[in-house]
Structures are given as structure tokens and as C-alpha cells.
User: Fold these one by one.
Assistant:
Number 1:
Amino acid sequence: MSAYTEIALIVCALATLVVAAAWVPGVTRVFVIAQAAFWSLSYVARPVVLLVVKPDPHYGDNVPDPRLAEYGYDDIIALVLRHVVFGMWVYAVLIVGYAIWSRRRSSAVGVAREPAIVADPDFIPALTAIYVVGVFGRGATMAAGATGKAGDVDSANPILNFVAILGTVAALGLIIFARPARQATTVLLLGGLLVMELGWTVVTESKTPILGAALAVAVRFAIVGWTKGKAVGVMVIAVLGIGGFGWLQSFKSTEFAKSESALANSSYPPTVQPFLSILRRFDLLEAATDAYYHGPGFWVAPGEVIQHAALTLIPTQLLGVQKFQSGTAWANDVRGSSVDMTTVSVSLAEGNVNEGYVLGGYTGVVVSVAFTFVLLLAWAKSLHSRYFPIVVLGLAMTGASALFERGILGSMEALGKFVQSAVLAWLIYLVVKEYRRRALPGPTPLAPPQATPVFIAKRGSGQWV
């Protein structure tokens, strides 16, 4: 089959995801649609640009891959995307099955409008305190010159980086759960937090903070209710955040770097150039190419996958040894099998279908995609938990890219890091709770009335509202 046929099959699978998401209740719908959008940029938009423009590979431009250009874009892209097509359809089948199951299961029940944690009067004050700590951590990281950038193997200052993560977690929590009485206050709060996350995106040279913030806004609207204006607003936030990334980053670039970038963009049609900054940051097609050239097996054995995944949940200080880093191992072993990586030290995003293919062929793809599906459900469930550490863990995962561009090993690494963040956030929560108990004896004046579950039966729909 031609590359266009493979791309068309991926488009059909992603369209199936979007249609099935309309039947999926709660915030899960938001996550599924976000996955479809993310994967469409990597596995549809980027290969289409390569097939239409056929750019020549050169230094400073990561959109054209020399391995794809060497044998002709059409023929090799068709081969590279074959396991991706399989993985996308397996995932689509899982989501369709879940949509059918959830509709039937919820035919006689409903879901509370607000997550249980919103009724906790100490929740928002604790998030505010955590955000202040995180912002100070970000400031200290910038002052120490330890912000790093996407793809770095190790953090320049792990402690400051650990504290800075709290800023992202709390920002997402306030975006999703804060309920100011006045609409103007809500707009100012969301706008300020989005601007802060966009600024952190530029500082860290990573798309993840602004994408996480846009996703958090979408989750908020999924809880409080959607309108056409809100839907358009979320799309605008995501597009402007990533589209304007290159422009904002240019203020930090040298004149030489700007001229190099302009030279790289000049080989593309004017209609494509505005989207190049986005395409360069959605690089799972490169990971799919890595997987194709490496082939199944001879990377990490199934038993080692389980071992590494379990050890990532233990802090390095307690473990006493350096933990396995899947992104670095992918760069050295998988990409290194077809690209000279001897002078490059970087951590790469492998993607679930690509990791699964390398670990165990098409069987591995099924296992890795199923893991992503289970993680998706657990992620959505955690945001409705009444337990503060579980909610924080869900917020941390919302601000990460595990569901979009990581496999089993990378997702478990992120989970292990965020478990530690959740513990620190929980300690801050306990301090805030005790302070408020002493400062506000008796019933807390600011506490909202205890929410009782509101059950709304939608005739024939079977959805929790």
C-alpha cells in the first residue's frame, strides 16, 4: 500500500476515536479527543508535509528524516506507518468498546456534577499554597540556570526541578477546580494561570506546560458544562500556545540561530511555514522510523520491562542505584541502530505503538496500547477522587505527556516522579489544613455547602451528567 493509504487508515482510526469520544462520559472524553489531536499532528500532518514538499534533509531541520528521504518518502513512509496503523485501530476498538460498555452500565445511574474533592474547604487554599511554593521553585530554577529544556537527559538541579513541578500541578488544579463567585474573577484567574504556563513553556523550551494548561481548561469545561464558545476557546488556546511558541522563543535566540531557522524554513511553501514550529515538536514519526529500522526484539526483555517499571516507583535515594531511563535508552539503542548517536546525549519520546513494536512486534503493540487505555481510565478516575494525593497525582499526569507520547516504561517513569510530588503536595495540604483549623475555629466560614450527588437521568442516553 502507498503512504497515502496508510495515512488514510490512520485518519479513519482517529476519526473513530473522536466519534466514540462523544459517547464517553466525563473527562475521559476530553482526554480521548486530545489524544486524537496529538497523534494526528505526528502521524498525519507531518508525513503529509513530507510527501507533498519532499524536503531535502539538512542540518537544523528535523522535519525531513534522512532515513525517509534516502529511499523515497512514499515507499518508506508506507512501511514506517504500518505498525502505527495497527496500533491506532487497536486503540480505537478499545475506546469504542468502552463507550458502549459505559453507556449501558450508566443507564440507571448518574454522576455528580462536581468532583468530590471540591467539597473540601481546605482544597483550594492548599492548591494556592502549593502554587506559591512551585512558583518560588521555578524562580530559583531560573536564577540558578537549571531550567534545562525538552530532551535533556538529567536535570541540572533535581531538587529545584522537583519543587518546580508543584507549580504546574497547582496551576492545573486551580484551572480545573477553582470556582470564584464572580465571572470576571474566573476569567482573570484562568488568564493569569495560562499566561504563566505559556511563559514556563518558553523558559523550558517544551510544549508540555501550555498543552497541559489547555487540557486542564478543557477538563474544567467538561465538568462545569460545555458551550460552543468554550470549545472554540480551548482550541484557540492550544493553537496559539504552540503556534506562538516559536515567536516567543525567538526573543531568546541569537541572530545566528534566527538566520539558521529562516534558512531551514525557506525550503517550504509559504502556506506550510507558519506550522513548522508545531510540526517540529510533534516528532513521533521519527520514533516510528526508529522502530521500523530497529525491528522487534533485542532491546528490553519482557521481564526487564516489569522490573524497570516497578523500580521507577521507588525514589532513587532509597533505591541506591541509577534507574533505567527509557528515553535515553531509546536514543542510544533504538535510534542508535540506524542513526549515529555517539556524539548526542538526549532523552526521546518513543510513543506507545513504537515502544510496543520494538518490545514484541504486533503483540507488543497490543500490550502497550492496552496499557495506555488502562492509564487513561485511571487518570480520568483520579480527578474525581475524594483523596487529595490521588487528585494531585491525576493533576500531575494531566500536565505530562504520558498518554500521548510515552509507552509503558516512560509512563511508569513519569508516574514514579509524580508519586513523590503528590507526597510533598499532601504534606503541604496537611500543614494548610492544620493552620486553617487553628485560625478558623468551629465551622469554616469559607467552606462551601456540602455537595450532595446530583443525579440526572438523561432519557435514553445513560450518561452521568
Note: Residues 108-112, 451-465 have pLDDT under 50 and may be disordered.
Number 2:
Amino acid sequence: MEPLPDGSNSNWAEPGIYEVAAGVYRIPLPLPNDALRAVNVYAVTDGSHLVLVDSGWALDEARRLLADALQGIGAELGDIREFLVTHVHRDHYTQAVALRREFGTKVALGKLEEPSLKASSEPERFPMHAQIGLLRQSGGDEVITALSRMFGESPRHTEAHLWEDPDEWLSSGRRVVLPGREFDVIHTPGHTNGHVVFLDDAAGLLFSGDHVLPHITPSIGFQPVPTKLPLSDYLDSLRLVREMPDQRMLPAHGPVTDSVHARIDELLEHHAQRLETMTAQVVSGASTAFQAATRMSWTRRERKLSEMDAFNQMLAVLETGAHLDVLASQGRLLVDEIDGVRHYKAT
């Protein structure tokens, strides 16, 4: 499998290996039964050393496709020196752990992912336990019922054995990646609390993980250990990256694009509009996050909440709650908790 120029295939998720820049290759790996379709893993090499940004989901097909792709640059799975992982979600982290067991590869992950990683490693823990609690606060019992039908009453974490600690907990700062090549590790909480992006300023590249994606808005705070105001964290993280010099954006899902600034501007505008829309829903009578979510449209297809599957209904209701909590923190809404459900009203 020979490397192709990146962008030579209109389908960004098509398996293969694509040259993004000198010594940097994009490798899409599959995400079965997931609307995202694929996750981009990036190989960074100087011809002698090999480091990967993110790893993919620990699936037999993903392992095979990664091995096939690396052959295109004369490398094997055992040649990977280290995985630099942007965040703790399974499509980014679990294959790194699986390959470490085979080859002793080092794994590095953001320090603030530690609580979520620990929670994920508990085999008896329902994977969406925290989200069920947040749905109850949102008045979303209907969604909880739908999730139970979709996943069963009490599914166990089938991948708990893959949530081992990394070899290194990453903090913000400059770090050697290859001899003569350094990345800046930048903490960007929001999508998860310990999410990091990697800046290769010498090459003009930003490995943006799920922090900035070209076609979709990342879910906010979808993690085993929730934080108080994940949307506020996310917006601050977007502004932090926007203040830095513009770079080519190497996202975890979707094609490489020329300007991370352009996409950040779109995301900030999107969330500003969402905040206004959700304020209007409360003013017009919606009391809970679930009620507000049912009155709104979702995705670029303008779908109603009832038209979505249970998992995406959950994401929509929790995103609504995250926006309403930011509005309450700004004093634009009032909030009271009654019998464990958060109720909002206009100031």
C-alpha cells in the first residue's frame, strides 16, 4: 500500500495512508456502526523513528488496516515508538493499550483524563452511568427508557480491560516527539476534561483530535466523570487555540483543512446561536433541558429529537443542559433543582 497525496481521495474515510506533510501521514481506521465512520490516526516519522497521534479502536480490522498502511512507509506495528493520545475515548486510546501489550509501545495521555480512565476501568460499571444521572437532572426519563431498550438494562463495560494507565501523563508544554522535532502539548478541555491537542509549529500543523472537527460540532463533556461547566471549558479552549497563529488542521474525524481559525470561528458562532436559541426556548415555556431539546432541531438535517436514536437523543439533551447551565452561570437564566431535576426560567 503506497502513500497517496492527502486529498487525492474525496472520501476521507477510505482506508489507506495519505501524506499530509513531510514526515506526516494520515491513516483512517474504521468505526463500525458509528456515524463518524472512521478515526484519523497520524504517523509522524523521520525514517528511523515512528510516533503515532491517536491509535484507533482496538478492533481486529483496525489493527490489520493500520499494519497494512504502515507498510507503505516501510514500517511495522512493532516499530511504533510511542502513541500520543488526544483523549480517553475508545476510538483514540484502546488500540494503543492493545499494541503496548504486544510490542511494549509507550502510551501518553493528558493528565486530567485520569479520573475518567479510572472509572472506565471498573468492569461492573455501566459505561453511561454518569450520563444517566445527567439525563435525570435534565428531566430526560424518556431518553433513559429508550437507552435501556437500546443497550439493555445494565450492560457491563466490555472493554474495561483496555483502560490501563498510560506510561506518561501529559501536561501542557513543549515535548520532544522525534529527534529534532518537537510538539507543543496544549490542554483543551471541553470534549473531555483532559483533551489535548498537539502543535507542530515548525511544520504549521495542529493535530486537533476531537477539539476542532471540520464538519461536525464535537459532543461536550461526554466522559465517565462529568465536570461542572464543560461547555464553558470548551469555548475557552476554542478561544485559546484561536489566539495562536493559524495552522493546518489535522482532525480526528474528517479531512485535513487549511485553517483551524476558520473552523473555530464557525464553532464559536454556532454555540453563540445555540445559546440564544435555548434562551428563547426557556422564555417560551421550556423548563427542563429535555423540554428545550424537544423544541429544537438537530444536525444539519434539522431533525427533531424524536427522529433520532436513543444515543443521539442523549447527546442532544446533555448538550442542551450544558448550554442552559452556561446561561445560568452568566446570570441570563435562573435555575432551581426540584426532586433532582433542574428547572430553568428567564431572569
Note: The mean pLDDT is 94.
Number 3:
Amino acid sequence: MGETISLQEIIKIIKKRLVLIIALTVIGCAVAAGISFYAITPIYEAQTQLLVNQKGNADQVYSMQSTDTDLRLINTYQVIITSPVILTPVLESLDLDLTTGQLAEKISVSSKTGSKVVNIRVEDPIPGRAVDISNTVAEVFKENIPKLMSMDNISILSSAKLSENPSPVKPNKLMNIAIGAVIGVMLGIGLTFLVEFLDMSIKSERDVEDYLELPVIGMVDLIKEENQKRFSLNPRKARRG
């Protein structure tokens, strides 16, 4: 037996269980807010920028060849920055109780295509430590790159600084609450239709037709309460009539 449901019936079902949907939405928002504000550790970010540029004499002419060399080296530099040869001195300098692998997970290195600027981003639960790691990585890299690559083309463009009121980059509380609301609405609607379709009680003539596959040829309406009282108080009068 095939069953179809119209848009009007869908709206009617949702209206019928609207309180349930709203309740689950509120619960979803509350759970997401609780996790975001109290369960997840805030993460702060610090960024230091390096400039990759060939150094030469004052009368040296700027050439496309040197620019191309710098750009090709950036990919190599990105790998070197997160290597143990750079991170080990950083750990020793800051006296961090971390392995080079754990420290590397906090660091991301990036650069835009065609740009000589390399961005070193560090994420850490402690904002001051994020700043220290970012700046120290840049300093150690700048000091060691001439020995590693026999080139001196690194300068620090901008250092990371600790603001008076640092704001965490993670978690995104508003986004998490919005996700919690969406999940709550989805659960509410899903549970609404599940309860509705599991309810096998007969409520209308259409239900009779659907379940028995027989046409309805007549209906007995409900007797109003006032008529019911009249018949029960005057049974003889009712029979005479």
C-alpha cells in the first residue's frame, strides 16, 4: 500500500510537535554553548612574518633571476622551519617540555603564490607562549639558514606581539552554537515524524481507509455535552419524543 503525504500534512505535523522541536533546538544550543565555553580549551594565535630577499651591494641591480631564486627557495624554507634542526634550539631556548613533533603541530608555515613573505603562525593555549614560540622560531631560522643553505636572504618583516586583551581563535563559539541549533532542529523534526509514523491509532476517516482499504460510507458524530446531559436526565421524555 503506497502512502503519500502532502506539504500541508507535513506542516500540520510540525505544528503539532512544535514544542518538541523548539525544546530540542534550545537543548542543542545549550549543549554547544556549554562545550564551547567550558569544555574546550581556548587556543590563541601569534604570527611572525619573514621576508625572503637576496642581499647584495647597494649598486647591485634588482634582477628577475634573484627573485625567481627566492621564490623557489620558499618551499624549501617552509620544510626547514618545522624541522628538528630549527625546533630543537627553540625548545632549548624557551625551556619547553615538548618534543619537536609536538611543537611542529603548533606551527603552520604558509606563503601566497608569488609572494616573498613567509608567515609563521603558532597556536597555543597560552597567548604569551604563542608569541614567544613564533618569534623564537623566526630568529633561530634566520640565524641558521646561512649555515644550512649558504645563503643570507632572510629578514624578519614583522614580529609577533602580545595584545592587552588577546582573543582566542578557537573555538568559534557562535559557529558551534549555530551548529548545535541546526542539529537540535534536525533531531526535533526527525523525532516528530518518527513518533507520528509509529502512532498506529485511528484518528480520522482517512486512517480507516488507509488501514482497512475500505471506503467510509457513514460517520457517527460526537454528541455534544449539553445534549448528553439532557438525554440522561429525561430518559422518558427522550423516548416519547
Note: The CA atoms of residues 46 and 131 lie 5 Å apart.
Number 4:
Amino acid sequence: MAETWLIYALGGGWGHLTRALSLGRIASRQRKVKIITNSPYAYKIDHDDCFVYLIPENVNFSETCLQVRKILCNCHYDCLIVDTFPRGLGAELADILPKLDYIPRVLIHRDINSRYVSAKKLKSFVKENFNRVIVPGEGKDLPFCDLPMVDHTAPWLIRNHWELPDKATTRSHILRVSPSKKTILVCASGKASELTLFGELTLWLKRNFPDCAVRILAATCPKECPKELWVSHHPGIECIAAADVVIGGAGYNTVYECAAVRVPLVAIPLERLYDRQEKRAYKSYWVQNYQDATFDEQLLNIYAMVRRILDEAIPANSFPIPSYINGAMEAVRQIEQV
């Protein structure tokens, strides 16, 4: 009987689910993989041979915790992999993990707010309740990086470079733009409440860069945008790889996907309870002090960056997609050793 890995990937956006699928699609070649998620986007995408326990986003907090506990206590699994939150998003894992000492437990350590780590005494909890901690490309200055059971990989990506379609195909069939036209892609992959912001930004870019093709990549079309500017496609890295410049938040997937395919990202750090997007934004062109500036000041800053990138860039369509290392493949090997 094949072993089973269970991945805890709660979080309302794309990030946790995409990271879980990046690992799960590779791991599922040799075993069963199950994913617990409450992402509203799970309805819209292929699960890549992983079984998904989908907790509806509209259930209340206590019911979400109850459903997670029910799955963990009644489902068979040979390894538990927890993404980002050692005690669970609602602390629902705090009293369960000590009872699972007969099962290997792995924490995926993405960057999180150090105040949260200190307030909940998470370092000692991680040391006592996890066999291995894997850092998926986020550096060595994270809160748990000094623990003895830490391993590092390159960032996890949902596609290897040889799986991506060529740029001309993506532009003509998915983005619906001329292969030779410079293309600006707005990534609206965060909270649903931020869709209006990115919709307005898309229209503004369309007006101010009339010689470029402008598209917004989002699960839902913003009401501000005409349908011809909207692209709904998963995985988003295929669209990113075919763009000349990307504008989006500084979430995990957006930053590392752009870095992997070497497409410049103009990053707008967005406010998050646990994730420190402002810190990650240093890896890209950064719209600084975004929360404090007026909307007109923000637009001028974005315009200057995009103009500079487009003026200096050779059209993306002139080069093949570069090769890169997908850390999810190494992570599978590290978890197998546990």
C-alpha cells in the first residue's frame, strides 16, 4: 500500500495552496498526497493528482478549526506537512501535534512576522513538535533558521522550466496579444478585496502605455476592467514567463515566479497579518512607502519604474524561457529522508 502525505495549507489566497500543489504534484508520482485548504481558488484549478479536502471559505472560524481537527484525527496519513503556521492558522494544531509523535511532522517555514513568533512562543513549539523544518528559498534570517533540524531549498514553483509553453504560444493563445508587442501583466493574486485596486491600476496602465499590451491576471474579472483585458489562467507562472514586466504584490509566488523566469517585477507590498511582503519586495523593483503615499504619488512611482524597464528591455519574446531550479523537487527528497 502506497504511503500518504497530508499537507496542511490553510490561508485565503493563492499562496499556501500553490505551494502545497508545487510539492504535492511531484510527491504524488510515488505516493498519495492529500491537501487541506480553505482557498476559494481551489474550485477553479487542476489539483495535479492530489486529493483536496476543501473547507468552504464561508464557514466561520470555529467550524473551520473543527473540520481541520476532524480530518487530522480520522484520516490515514504517514507524514504530516504543515505550511507556514506551526500551531495552525487558528491554533487548532496546538494540542493535536503532541499526540502525533508516531508520525513524521514537517514544517514548511516561509517568512512570518517575528512578533507573532515571539508572542506565541513558536520556536520552542516547533522544536518540540516537528522532526524537520524546510525553508523554501526564503533565506537564512527567518525566525526558526537557527534550529538544528532546518534544511533549505530553492523556492518552490508549480512548474519546472521544461513544462512551460513557449512565449509565442502563451501570448497568442492565453494572453491574446501580438507576440511582438511589449506586454505589461498585472497580477491580482491576493485578497479578493484588492481586486478593485488592481483593476483600476490596469485601466490606468492601458491609458498611459498605449503602445503596449496590458492584461490583468486574476481569478475573477474586476468590474472596472473590460473582459478583453482579463486573463484567468492557472498556473500563473505560464503568463508571467511571457510578459515583459509584471506588476503585483510581493507575495511568495509572485516574487519567486518572476525571479525564476527573469521577468522584472514592480512589487507593491501589501498589508498582511503574518506575511512580511515589504521584506520580500527587496528582491524586485519596489514601490516604496506604498501604504503612506497618495494614489497619484503611487501611480507616478509605478509609471517611472515601468517606463524605465520597457525602455531598457529587449522584447521578452526574443529569448527562450530560462532554466531554473525548482526547490520543490529537492524538498520531496528531504521529506522522504524524514
Note: The chain has two domains: 4-158+326-337, 165-318.
